[in-house]
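For the sake of transparency, this paper describes our internal protein records without simplification. Such a record has a labelled line for the sequence and another for the backbone structure tokens. Nothing more is needed to write down the fold, since each code stands for a local backbone conformation. For reference, a complete record is included directly beneath this paragraph.
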Amino acid sequence: MIPAQVLKNCLEELKSITKVSFCVTDLTGAVVTMTQDTPVPDTGLITGFASTPVDSQIIGSCYLMKVEEDGEPAYILAATGESENTLMISRIAVSEIQNLLTAYKEKYDRNNFFQNLLLDNLLLVDIYNRAKKLHIDSTAPRAIIMIELEKGAEEGEGTASELLGGLYTSQNGDYLTAVDESSVIVIKTVGSLDDYASVERAATVAVDMLNTEAMLKVRASYGTIVPELKDLSRSYKEAKMAMDVGKIFYAGKHVHSYNSLGIGRLIYQLPVNLCRMFLTEVFGDNPPSDLDEETLITINSFFDNNLNVSETSRQLFVHRNTLVYRIEKLEKSTGLDIRRFDDALTFKISLMVSSYLKYLDSIDY
């Protein structure tokens, strides 16, 4: 069904042009929407007209017409006006409403189609048949962009969908859908299978717009570009994985690409028991999660500066000897000297594995 506000806006615009007032009811006579200062027709007249086989009826200065959907009456339109063209205007209004019904039905059919497609709920033959019926090109290269709202901000999904809907339109070959309450899925059409610059740009624009215009904290991820519609579920799974890996290992970034997850991808796919065994082997009973915040900041800054003591001390605003003391203190407690490449590599991987396990614990793995 058409949202009442959309229907009202359409009829108000028609009234401003024709000076004819409109009221739309359901088949029981209940008012769905009406233009301003429009008389409400008698419920008995509406129900009586709805039960007749005729499509239109004139009662005094009021014209009653049936609005059909799939060959069956869906609404009753009551038009009131003094113009001799009121009958013709009424028919135009009926045509407009029926066009809206068709457009909204197609929109939600597309939404349902893409939801089932992404979740692998369609047979191959159904994908092509429904795509043809919905006028969706099945051979255009596409990628899935997942826009996820920060936990606790799920009520902003409607706003996010509305803003993104103006940015990504079916006229450009792009579509929006959702498979849960915390994210919006953009099905982005691109020019070629290696046009990742366009996908990255689209994801970045979406994040920036929602952050600035809607004041929503969001992050985005995207999967690989696939050549056909039937492969979209793979791109969706990749985007979902990129989102999880990005949140765990690259929290400072807001856009994550499946093709650039680095070592985070490997750790994410390791068995949990193997991860715990690795941490125990390296740290014994003192996992890196037990380190204080100052030590973690020092370690991460040291890694960010490519193990350069002088540059790290300048960035942290501490004396060089103070930094060396912290590193040596860390070596005594862990047995790892992060000034050495091998130990630094072990420590970096250990921190990432620890973050992964902490994430699993937070979702009650």
Remarks:
- Residues 4-101 form a domain with the Beta-Lactamase fold (CATH 3.30.450.40).
- Strands lie at 21-25, 31-34, 56-59, 62-69, 72-80, 142-149, 175-177, 183-189, 218-222, 255-257.
- The longest strand covers residues 72-80.
- DSSP finds 13 helices and ten strands in the chain.
